[in-house]
Amino acid sequence: MKIWIRKMISVLAVCAMVIGLGVPVRTQAAQPDTDTYVQQLIAYYRDDQEDAETDIARVLSEMAEVDAQQAEAWTQIMDYWSYVNTDMPVNLNVAPDGLAQDDSLCIVILGFALNSDGTMKDELIGRLETGLASAEKYPNAYVVVTGGGTAAGNPNVTEGGLMGEWLLEHGLDEERLIVEDQAPDTVGNAENTYRILSEQYPSVKDLVMVTSDYHVPRGSILFYSKCLLSAYESGGEPLQVIANAGYETGSQGYESIALQASGVASVAGVSVSSERLPLSQLSGLTITQDEIYEAGQPLQLQVTARYDTGFSRDVSDAITISGFDPAQGSDQEITVSYSENDITIDAQFSLSEKSQSFASAAYLEKRIEEIEQMDLSVYTDSSVNTLQEALAQAKETAAQADADAEQIRQAYDALNEAYAALIKRVNIAYHMDTEANCNDADAYKINDGVINTGNYWQSVENGQNVASADAQIIIDLDGLYDVDSIVVYPYWGGQRIYKYELYGSTDGAVFIMPLDISTVDYWTLLRFTGLTVDYQNVQEEESLRPAIHDMLADRAVRLGYKYNSFTVSFESINYRFQRDIVYQHILEGYDNDWSKPSAEGKASYTKVSPGTYLFKVRSLRRSDGKTISESTLEVKVSQPWWNSWWAWTIYLFIIGFVFYFILRYKSNQLQKKYDEDKIRFFIDTAHDIRTPVTLIMAPLEDLNREQDLSDKARYYLNLAHESTRKLHSLITQLLEFEKVDAHKPSSSSVPLCLNEVLLKEVSVFRSFCEKKQLTLNLTQPDESVFVSADKHLIEMLLDNLLSNACKYTMPQGEISLDLKATKRKAILSLKDNGIGIPKKAKKHIFSDIYRAENARQSQEEGTGFGLLQVQRIVKMLHGKITFCSEEGKGTTFIVTLPRTTTVAEPVSHESSLEHLAGTSDNNSHETDKIKDPDDRNTLLIVEDHETLRHYLRQTFEHLYRVIDVADGHEAIACLANEYPDIILSDVMMPGIRGDELCRMVKENPDTSGIPVVLLTAKANHEAIVEGLKKGADDYIPKPFSTEILKLKVQGLIDNRNRQRQFFMRQAIAQVEAGGKRDDNESNENN
């Protein structure tokens, strides 16, 4: 037996290891190379995609131990591959918006198989059209066409060559075109394209893939991975595939992931087996917190998932927490849930604990199944009983439907501890010299009862397999050459039960049990090594470098607002344990939590808002997560100028100014409304006064025509008449003010010659100026100056300005009226050397009913309406008025009006009235003649004002048979029994208004022929038009002239009588003509 053992030791010596186990053992082959890891990555993603996330992470982690650079490259490839099939948008027919508008962008158009005759297929032309549209959208980008495929019937043409010719024919600049027509497949296209661009076009950084819509994902991942791997191989900068444009073919989907995997394998140069790799199974969770939770603080848990492969990873971002009360503190249990591939662990974690581990029920069941398959009969130690008890308890826990994760973990740990205790009964002592000679004591020391003494060793050819006679010992030595370490798994009954590691040396082998390794405490200083600021030019970087060094030394960094994107570098160096050191960092006030542990000694931040932050970084041991060292750095980003205190001062000033302006505007609006209400009150009062003034003026005119008045009576009569005239003038001015609405154009505007109007106005005021010893001058251009305006408004404007100038200019003074014209404007200037306008009154004269203090003291009559009315007239005519004045020296008003060149003949509306007035004397004896009562016409008077109704009755009762009523209802009742020859009605009455009465009369066929005359205090244009529309035969404003009223009434009656006589003669003539026809017919019959 000893001879066989020595032979076995010799075999193991070749592999630099000694196995002194009294239990069956199995050794693991050498660590895989990077190709093996790449094969696993591709296979996992091909078969399981997102479900294989854990295994992809595990493979990348193992790969990093072999080749960190390749692991980094494949990490990026796998991330991009996942992005391509989940989140990447496929842009149809043109590249997306927002790409760089310079030569850092390159549009890559992939080729497509040609027709057999060497012409391009429609799909390839579609790709070219999509690429050309993208090139036109980004005119500075280069364009690469790829494809070395040829045609079966025309081997002299290539896809890339034909594609380039097509683009040039369709307007692409030749300097932008790059042709790659060597490689017949996408992988070769990507390799050649990277080489051409990196060597000849170094400005290109980003690629836009253009192909058919269904080919976009596969083409993108192949180009991305090949460009990335080529960059790693050559040491150059990788090209990034940042966008795509797919020619819309109408395809319902994309190329399969299996086809993508085949292409990625081709990129990597590996062959991938079609067999499906087993997925890691979630076996447990470990939950830790740095500090015991305190009420009101944020809950910070780190959750690590454990798997049956021995791999673990941080899943803190994927957990679900329930039952947490922030206000309760650490005296509570929360439920932390994590699910992966149909396995869920609900862990009841106590916040009073810093760390707890939990097991998966599914994994516990799997562990129970593994141990039950072991043959425990070979063991004689008491540890077997302990294992069997733990196994029974574990099975009982697994069978409980309501068992929580803590109970499962306890059962799992108890089972493993009993299992480990059993296995650890095999203690190994070993020694091996360089000649592989050792005695029995040095080679083995086997505990009692562990292995049957009947076992023997058997060697097979080439030392590949060694087995015991009872097939309990299996040692796989295949491929164990040129290795630094060997992992050994002892097996019972084909089941792996523990893990050992063997390391060869120049003096035998080193045997390690990883689970028994104790942690070594060590410490190292953590320091800040650098600070880089993004978006700096060379000069800025050089100028900031000394300041950055000082700031890091002082642990206080001050950055301007435009330098708010930066990277902080730090390191904690311990050459013995460097690979065990990882870092975590947090920028308090910016980050919500510490970063995940990483070996990368830098932290980058972008667009950090102005403010003061505390950057904390700590180094930790990767093995147990304990903190080694911690350091802090104060970071202050200054406010931009627009957020500084003085900027806010300006903002507040502007806001205050706007607020003041709004208040001022509101105040002006209220003042304007007050002035309008005041004017409305005066106007309404004027309407009410017109009727009494009519009752005064009309009787005064009647008395004035009496011949037997004494001189004293006539004097008093004239005095009363003059006072009444002034009152009438004031009322008229108020009502004229109402007519002027600056917001409505004048309906009677016609081209008006200002020269003629000025001459007329000057002639009217000249006699007044002569009496007051004033000089009135008029200056006009030789040409005629026309404006579009209502003549009455222009006269009103000039009357007010001239009247003010004449009243407030002292004797011997001078008034100048000057008219000038430009091509588009008429400019009227009125200057006097009168009393002037005080400074404090200037702001009121165009906005209020206002008289200045010096005007009131001048004893001249005035109302304060004049200049306000002038301003409204000028606005109504779309002009502008300005003035300059100095108290005691005079005033100059300048009125600017739009000029017109159209000339129209003015129509006079005064002829009929003048005719009536001219003939009134001739006909007065006829109208005043008392008619025979039997022959008199009937006059119906409708007036609610009793005094005026009585006066009208007295005025007309000696001429007509008069019927008077007080309102419209009485008038309607009267018309039922009477048929008057004329109706004289007031407009403003209670009940039925006068204009409504007129409408009712005219719409009634029985009364429609009766003339209606309306009397009203409303003399504006709109009121007159409204009355005439309702059928009134005439519209007479109050106060009226009794004589004119008589003439109009008589004229309407006479016209009606003449019409009646005319129709009567017509009727008689028709009757006579009919009689003659009858006589003729009878004579003919005889």
Can you give me a brief rundown of this structure?
The protein is of the alpha/beta class and about 1100 residues long.
Properties at a glance:
1086 residues, seven-stranded mixed sheet, five-stranded antiparallel sheet, elongated
Could you walk me through the main structural features you see in this protein, from its secondary elements to its overall organization?
With 1086 residues, the chain is α/β, with parallel strands linked by helices. Strands 28, 29, 30, 31, 32, 33 and 34 form a seven-stranded mixed β-sheet that branches. Strands 1, 17, 18, 19 and 20 form a five-stranded antiparallel β-sheet that branches. The longest helix has 60 residues, at 645-704. It is elongated, with a radius of gyration of 57 Å.
